[in-house]
Structures are given as C-alpha cells and as structure tokens.
Amino acid sequence: MSTIMNPPAYKAAQEKARALLSSMTLTEKIGQLSQFGTSIYSDSDKLPDAHYSEGEVGSYLTIKGAQVTNAIQRDLLTATRLPIPALFADDVIHGYRTTFPTPLAQSCSWNPELTRRCNEIAAKEAYRAGLKWTFAPMVDIARDPRWGRIMEGYGEDTHLCSRFSEAAVRGFQGDGETVGKDRLYACMKHFIAYGACIGGRDYNSADLSPQTLHDVYLPPFQAGIDAGAATVMAAFEDVNGVPATGNRYLLTDILRGKLGFNGFVVSDYGSVTDMIPHGFAEDTKDAVRLAFEAGCDMLMAGPAYNEHLPALIKEGKITMEQVDHSVLSVLTLKYLCGLMDEPLVDETGEDCFFCAEHMDAARRAACETAVLLENNGILPLCTERLKGKRIALIGPLAGEEGKTHLLGNWACLKDPNRTVSIEEGLARALGASCELVTAYGCGIRCENTAEAHEKESSSVKQAAEIAARCDAIIAVVGEEAEMAGEAYSRSDLTLSGHQGEPIDALIATGKPVILLVAAGRPLILTPYKDRVAALMLIWQPGSSAGDAVADLLTGAVSPSGHLTTSFPVCTGQVPIYYNHASTGKPALGKWQFESKYQDCQIAPLYPFGYGLSYTSFAFEDIRLSSDKMTAEGEITVTLSVRNTGNTDGAAVVQLYIRDLVGSTVRPVKELKAFEKVFVRAGEAQAVTLHLSARALAFHDAAMNEIVEPGKCKLWVGECCTDERHEFDFEII
Ligand code: BGC
C-alpha cells in the first residue's frame, strides 16, 4: 500500500485538518474544493479581493514563478479569516524549466528509474517556483496514435505503463512519509479510459467492456496508488455512456472501493460543466450535483462549486458529511506537505533551473529514449573518419526554429533559448574537423496553395543541391510541438506538409541519408524504411536535444530505446497493438479468411518492443525455476545477457506469455516482466525475471478476477515478435 497516504504522518496531518475543519464556515469549506485558473488574474499578480476574501479559493493552477505565487499567497493569507494557504498546481509533465523527453519517449527507455529521476528534478524546479502539485503522471493506456495525447503517457502496454506509473509517482512525491521540500503531489490522470476515445478523436466516448476496463486500463492507476499517489483527475469523456466526472461507479466504487485510493479527486478543466453538452446534466447546478455525488472532490477551474453547492446542501441533495469528507482530504494534504507551516517559498531557489546537473540528466534521458529503427552500418559516425568531410544537416527541426518543437507539447515553462539545437550539438561534437552544412528543406506544415508549394519546391531543390556536394546527409523530419498533445488528434499519420519531398530528393543524390524523426507520436515511416542508410526516432528529446543526438550519432552512447507502441504501416492499420485478443481466424497469411486487411501487410512496420543498438546481444542459458506454479506461486527466469559486439550497450530483456486456453479469449501475447541491463562489449550479465501467477489474473465473463489453471507459453526476447527462446509452463 501507499507510503504517504497511510499512517502515522497522514493520520497526524488528518487530526490537524479535522480541528481546522470544525472551525470553518460553509463558504470556507467549499473554497477548499475550488480551484481557479489564470484567466481571473491574467495581468496581475494580485487577485481581486472578492475572489478570496471569504475563503472561496483552495487552489490555483498554472501560476508561474516563486515571486508571483508568494505574492498571491501573502495576499490570500492576510485577506482571509482563516489563513489557509492555496495549493498551487500546474501541468509538470516532462520537466518544469529543464525539459525532459516526453513521457512516451521516456517509456521507450524501458527504464522506470529514468522517469523517477526526471520527475524528481521536475518536482524540485517546480517546487522552487511555488508549486506543490502537478497534474501528472498521465497513465492512460493509448492504443491509437491518432490520439494526440499518446505523447503524454507510457504507451500501449499495461504492465510497462504500470511500472512507469509507480516510478513517476515516486519521482514527484518521493518515498518518504510526507511530500515536503522539492517534492510535488502527483495527480494520476485521466480516470479513466480517456485513451480509449473512439477513433483516437480527443474527448470522444470510450466504449469498452468491463473486462478491458479492469484488465487493461485500471492496473496503471492501481500501481500509482500503491506507490502513494495523493490525487487523481477525473476524465472528460463518457465511459460506456456515463461521463467519467459524474460516474459514481468509477470514482467511488472502483477508485476508492476497489483500488483503495484515499486522496482527493479533482475534475478536469471544465469536465463538470461538459456534462451539460454531454446531455447528462440539465444545467451547471445539476452538473455540480452529479460530479460531487460521484466523488469529484475539487472543481478545476472556476466558481461552479462555490455557486451551487450551498443550494444543493440546503435542498438536501448533498450532505454536510460529504462536503466535510472532501474538505478533510484537501486540508490533510495541505498539512502533510508542510504548506500550512511554510506557505511561502524561498525566492532564490529558482537558480537551479537549467543547472548543469539538470541539463545533464536531460541529455542522458534523451540518449536513453531514442530508438534506432534502421542502420546499414553507417552509424555510429566515426569522428576520425569524418575528418575533412562535409555533412549536410537538413530540415527546420535541426536548427534554431526547431528548438521549440524538440521540447514537445506540455512542456510547462519551456525555453527554446535554453535548448541545445541539433545543429549546435552536432557542431560541438564534430568540432572543426568536419564541415556541417545546413539547409532548410521544407516546413513541417505547409499552406495548401500553389504559391506555398512552389516556394517549398525551390527550397527542397536547394537543399538537395547542397546535400549532393556533401559526403553524408542528416535530415530531421517530424512534428511541431503543437501537433501532438491535447486536442491534436490526427486522421493521417504520414509526414505532414511536403516533408516527404526533401527526403526523396536527398535519397536521389545517392549520398547516405540518416533520417532522424522528431515527433510526439508514431508516424508512418513506410516509404523511407528501406531507402535510408539509418533511421532513428528521437521523439521530442527536450532541453539537451542536440547534445544527446550528437552522443547517439557519434556513438558516445549506443542507442538502447525500444518501442512502446506499435508503429503502423499505414494509418488504416490503426488501432494496431501487439496484445490484441486471439481471433477465431488469426492472421497467419495462409488463406483469405483471416482477420486482416486485403491491402496492407499483417504486421505493423515496427512491433512493440523493437529497437536496435550499435552492438548485439545473445540471451544464453535461460532457465525457468519450474515449469509449473500454483495460483499463488511464482516462476523465476534466469539468463545471461552476453554483449556479442564490439561496443558497450544496454539490452532490454522482455518476457512475454500467452495463456493458451482461457474461459474468456486471452491476448495473443502479454508482456509480464522486463529488465534493462548495461553490458560491456564481450562481457555478460546475469538477469533474473520474476513471473508470478497473480500477474496472469484476468476478469472472467462474470467479472470475477481469476488466475486460471492451464498451459501457457513463455518467450524471452528482444521484442514482442522475437520467439527464438520459447518455453512452456503450466498453472496448476
Ligand atoms: C487537461 C488536463 C490538464 C488540465 C489543466 C486539461 O485540459 O485535460 O490533463 O491537467 O487541462 O491544464
């Protein structure tokens, strides 16, 4: 169970909160359940008295900086009868000032410890700016790359996402009993199944079986709650017909009852009043009633709770006990993090922003999250052999203009001026020995006019001419920051604008092309896969982007990222995820009557778990402790990972299973354990993986959670399609 959400520190904080609660007016109580956003104070660092003189505000979101938060806090404390400090919150998703790779990129490290470290730094910087609470991590399973918010989560797999979920929470909150200095309260979001929006269209309905909800979407929340997550955010969409924010079954029965969550729930931005256009609530008052009854303790952002809860209490629709319960949760967390004793932050603390330690952590994270997809041997570039040579660096994402995009979306207070561009990083790494020549190529987006296209064509031509005079070409393509993230769903995952044109022109020069893809989500890379010398996915790598890219291209670091979402061959193949249910007519490519499309290949372009390195690994001497286990038992898998190449590198050992016959249809494969291990060239490392029978539990047709006896397959491999090492075991 959770560390911080349990006695004794929590109990002590709760006692203090209880005492305070007994002295509060109804307005003050409801104030603690109301969060306000930036719009009400836009140009001023002071709030109009009316907004808090009676204690109407408990929390603020998106206020930036220690000076401003302190100024507001001071005003609030002097103007109110009971000086209860506000909880300042923001979306600290992948860094505060120093920006780390996006969460989806982080998951490709297969190293949850990396995420813990990134969030620890993010929490420190945000805390120094006056924040105590982040709206992260997002642990929504995302099986559809058309959904723009896929960039904010940890991919398509439940087990992997759960491991990152707990690491993310620990990074923000720490492992202690309190969430004190340099820490933030985490907020697991979006509860729940927001990633299951139909067609990948943001805010769209989630229509899914109870089994899928429980077996696929809930476990990452359970993992985060077990790691101590203090708060949870309710989702926007309706789940099987009931909006998540007004869904008592989800917010109370499941979240609190089943998952054991005992912190507080905040709505999403406007998700309470969204229940009106949903056609679920008659008006704002009705929406407030539905949300509050369901278990949504705090409203983001605005006065709807302040305005409507008093009447609802008077009418007996909401009880004082319900209100007290929610207020107690909020106040307890305010005591627990030390806010009540120390409401102000030290304004000199912000000097840690972008410090060498944080930039270095960002660089290492970016190195670990890139995924090498193709390499004909051109990489790593040998700096010795490059002496006197000329390298073309093509594309707007490579230079100054690209910096903001390499930081990605949801990069809180991102600063392109404190970002290392790819050009800068490469120039630094390559030194004066080789010449780096740059050209624009073409834009990431392009207006659909003949004039714009003509301009692009001439720029592409120019880039190709420059590239033709070089020895090798590095081209950077992908997405702008504001092409992935909230409300950035896409119906077409091919490269936007005319980005394919420069790639074709560069390939036509006959010079080797190293294609770097900087994007928030999986894109269609089918046309380039076999035509370039190397293909590397760098995602949106953050503040130290250029240095990390240089480390990877020159071989200072061997790539070790592996995909955590399947990369489709074409957009029509979506949704394609590796752990789909077994069908009665499996796609084996043997005859017509199979579950497949007529007009594209069965497999994705790159499968889940895939990623290359500059070295190679052999998994040797794989042993199972037993080929049988009981429903409470465990099998241990031991092996030796040998680095069979000439370069040091990290392997990702992945353990998949298949439950061969089940009382409900089982997935074709499921990841159940993994371990990343660094191995020096020529050396070997021992790895132990644990597979408990509990990890194979699922919900049957009657919604009982069961571990079923029966035969299973087990594979230990380097990606989900690697079946070189296959074993049988049985649950007895
Ligand atoms: C998003 C949340 C976010 C909130 C506050 C909403 O639109 O869905 O994830 O935390 O805004 O910025």
Write the layout of secondary structure elements.
Blueprint: H1 9-21, H2 26-32, E1 34-36, E2 59-61, H3 66-79, E3 87-90, H4 103-107, H5 112-128, E4 133-134, H6 158-173, E5 187-191, H7 210-217, H8 219-226, E6 231-234, E7 238-239, E8 242-243, H9 248-258, E9 264-266, H10 284-294, E10 299-300, H11 304-314, H12 320-336, H13 356-369, E11 371-375, E12 390-394, H14 403-406, H15 422-430, E13 435-439, H16 450-468, E14 472-478, H17 500-508, E15 513-518, E16 534-537, H18 545-554, E17 617-624, E18 628-629, E19 634-643, E20 649-659, E21 670-679, E22 684-692, E23 698-699, E24 705-706, E25 710-717, E26 726-731
Bound molecules: beta-D-glucopyranose (BGC).
Q: Summarize this, please?
A:
The protein has 732 residues and is of the alpha/beta class. The strands form 7 sheets. Strands 11-16-15-14-12-13 form a 6-stranded mixed sheet, with helices on both faces.
